[in-house]
Specification:
The structure is a homodimer of 345-residue chains. Helix content of chain A is 41%, strand content 14%. Chain A has 12 helices and 12 strands. In chain A, helix 9 links the parallel strand 6 and strand 7. Chain A starts with 7 loop residues before the first helix and ends in a 14-residue tail after the last strand. At the A-B interface, helix 4, helix 5, strand 2, helix 6 and helix 11 of A face helix 4, helix 5, strand 2, helix 6 and helix 11 of B. The structure holds a DNA duplex (30 and 30 nucleotides).
DNA sequence: GCTTATAATGAAAGCGCTTACACAAAAAAG
DNA sequence: CTTTTTTGTGTAAGCGCTTTCATTATAAGC
């Protein structure tokens, strides 16, 4: 009953066998006679015994536990990644623990220590857009960690990071998004979000410019506004852009870094009485759960984040050293419409 | 350099001391001479040594890892709880792992085994509204788990569950919410969400009815609609209610189980051209990050979910057996307004 | 029936720590 | 200076498993 902490010894003596035999039954090894197996099974049942994964880990050098580092779980984008990763991990018998981004900071009292001491079997790191000065630091931290455990990256990974990874092809994605809008007759297309100083050729910015070029549209610096990936920042950035331009130069469409930024844009537009999608189309990214409930419902790109998380776990477990790309899907809702004032050139 | 897996023996020999001494330095014990301590420190530094929490756990019978069981991380409500819990855990040197709700199902291939085998130092379980038939099962599962590790509950806990817990006083909260609305002259107040068959006297339903009684308003069954706590369900429930009533009987205000349901209500209203808050006030609960960006911005109750998660961790660590209540805060936004058609009685 | 291959089991040595306990060296007390 | 404390270190016994290796019981081969 209350034998909540029986050990393998207890089971062995209760079943009248050696601990080696119990261990064999536990791990389903073949060479145990059916009779013995049954005896052991019953003893286990009777004592409600569960082997300690701790002790097991000491011997086997494997903990069956994975870690994930995220910037912010409150952002549903990351919650989706986590969910996908956690579920996949679980189906393989792994546990998933969350570590804050600060775990990478090698300053202070080396918090990465916590990661290493845990002897994780693998670590997923979700990398956000990084300012260049931070870039090197993070890279170093990752390289250190890799000496202790396999690491798989998710997100916006600078190409010179030599790590297995799972990500969307942001450049291609944004390029096609621009094409989608130009196809609707939009010619003043803004892009809001991201960091300015950046050298990664696979970023959204690049796709944005490619998209403009594809449509032979000019690149207008005023339409390229940088901000963090939050709703507040998006609101602010949109406010700033609109305020800085005469209304006749306002964009006819806005591509937001993500849905949070898009939400900020929508609010900014609403406050100014700009009709979406009548006067302005808005398109987000990540297809958050709230996208269909915004006003108007937000067109967004479903980046298959759960699948991304799941694939990262698979890479971790299989040890494959691939850099993988996850596809995406444009979810059309009411926030995008053909440009009414499209001038027949 | 590559000595990524030095053991305490390596450090001992490198520093020319015994492993006991290394252990002492590691744990900051007092009785080590400064000279020795320094020698050991340097050896540790040189070999980049981090003690294995696994081995440590075997001896100390403590893993410094906690678990949390949530219905769904994609619901930001739970993401906030998780975040609060994780951060608090971290400050105490604990790791936090996520387990899906299914971990409690004692059917199937007893998944709770995973929890037990991990030898967690504690477990937080977020309990949702449970249908009565499920209630007993969950209770049993929890009681089983408690034999193996401390358990703290969060959320809607039936009062006969004898577990330490952290929760809002839902009844009082909803009662005051009704008062807030009646104070604005609303007299047809609907409540959407939750499960029907329920006997817990501390639920929102109860507060809702108390609130009506306080204002001497009739309890109108048609205004009490049950649905799950999702946006889709909220939309459907609102649609059904509105459709089943002549517009002149439509509620003037609706209290939603949570912000997701409220989002569904807002959408339903929008589709029907019902002006919020002109004709209908809507009030949610949880104050999700998107609440300010809805149209209109949603009045909601901030239930201090991060603090709830943090408190749960504190109870777990301290071993206190309290049932705690977390306070809350009404965040007023544009979705609620005085009832225009308030009849001067 | 006796030898050899095969299957079933146990004894024992770790895995990398913590923690009595023992013991030597240094400090305080007489 | 001894004697008693105090302080600093080392030895060794676990913690609860896995795993090699040796050993015994059983089946197969001739």
């Amino acid at each position: 009953m209350g034998s909540d902490n029986a050990t393998i010894y207890d089971i062995a003596s209760e079943a009248g066998v050696s601990i080696a035999t119990v261990s064999r039954v536990l791990r389903g090894e073949a060479n145990v006679s059916p009779a013995t197996r049954e005896k052991v099974r019953q003893a286990i049942e009777r004592r409600n015994y569960r082997p300690s994964s701790i002790a097991r880990g000491l011997t086997s050098k494997t903990t069956h536990s994975l870690g994930i580092i995220l910037p912010k779980l409150l952002n549903p984008h990351y919650a989706m990644i986590f969910t996908g990763a956690q579920e996949e991990a679980r189906t393989h018998g792994y546990t998933m623990s969350l570590f804050p981004w600060a775990s990478l900071d090698t300053d202070a009292y080396n918090p990465a220590a916590m990661l290493i001491e845990r002897r994780l079997d693998g670590l997923i790191v979700c990398v956000e857009y990084l300012p260049p000065d931070h870039d090197e630091l993070v890279h170093d931290a990752l390289k250190t960690l890799r000496r202790f455990m396999p690491v798989v990256l998710i997100g916006c990974i600078p190409p010179w990071y030599d790590f297995p990874s799972v990500a969307n092809d942001n450049a291609a994605m944004t390029r096609k998004t621009v094409a989608y809008l130009t196809g609707m007759g939009h010619d003043r297309i803004a892009f809001i979000g991201g960091v300015q100083e950046d050298t990664d050729p696979r970023r959204r910015d690049v796709g944005y410019q490619q998209g403009l070029r594809d449509a032979r549209l000019p690149y207008t610096a005023s339409y390229r506004v940088f901000c963090k990936g939050t709703a507040e920042a998006g609101k602010q950035a949109m406010d700033d852009m609109l305020q800085s331009l005469k209304p006749c130069y306002w964009p006819t469409a806005v591509i937001a870094l993500n849905d949070l930024v898009a939400m900020g844009c929508l609010l900014s537009a609403r406050e100014r009485g700009i009709d979406v999608p009548g006067q302005l189309s808005v398109i987000g990214c990540d297809d958050l759960f709230c996208a269909p409930y915004l006003s108007p419902p937000l067109t967004s790109i479903n980046t298959h984040q759960q699948r991304t998380g799941a694939r990262a776990v698979q890479l971790l477990i299989s040890g494959e050293q691939k850099r993988e790309t996850v596809d995406w899907e444009l979810i059309e809702r009411a926030s995008c419409a053909p440009n009414r004032e499209a001038a027949p050139t």
